[in-house]
Design a protein that fits this description.
alpha/beta; Rossmann fold; globular; two-stranded antiparallel ribbon; single chain
Length: 283
Amino acid sequence: MEAGIQQRKKCVDLLHHLGPKLARRNGVDELVPACIPRMGCCCGNEKQGGEEKKFQLHGLQKYAPLAKNRKSFIVSDSMNAHLARLLQRAPALAPCLEDIQNAYEAMRCSLAGGGKLLICGNGGSGADAEHWAGELLKGFGSKRPIGGELLQKLGPELAGQLQGALPMIPLTGFVGLSTAWQNDCNPDYVYAQLVLGLGKPGDTLIGISTSGNSKNVALALETANKLGLRTVALTGAGGGKAAQLAQTSIRVPSCETYLIQEFHLPVYHTLCLMLEDAFFPAA
């Protein structure tokens, strides 16, 4: 286990540790899923790199691996409960919490202003884009019953069969346009073309790329920036071109593609829960 931890630490430029005095969140006792890599999943004290680290799996966590220029994130009682639960399940994501919060704010501002979310990726990241959109376009943690003015417009029978939705468009789904573009134009620009056609100032584009160097994702982010959209990148530790272009980048602590993808899932599920709470608080 220690060898695995050391190997992951070498390949990432993010330093994985928990901030001091992590506050216990009442009622949160989920075990960390086996598929999520954990940094220092142990109790008691150990020596690593000449410095002591202390861990407690549940309750009050104290300290995690120490290193130069470490990025600290302090969890307090005012911290979003979903972020706190994410930290409980995947402590290695501690250095990403601030960026996750910033991504949430960008998405929330777009939706609150009447805008929408666009999302793109390739392969497994494209499947994650579709998955993420599906969680926002219907109920996720709650049923999101229709109420208020919308209930009056739809009527009780129709509204009773529907759920509140947050608009996110996966750019992976335009088969006709995508195949035509690949046949007639430079395929690297297919997502950029969709951003041009669908994006409006104030919207948010999320680009998912495990390496951060997917050309079509990077070009979409560049186009979005120039058109006045907010931009978020979800990548691996290296960040790549996508992290350089995005206004907010969430770089999860791994360089292995499958591990990056395993980190991405709880990150975007947490963002879905945070947005759902913001827009459907009584659901």
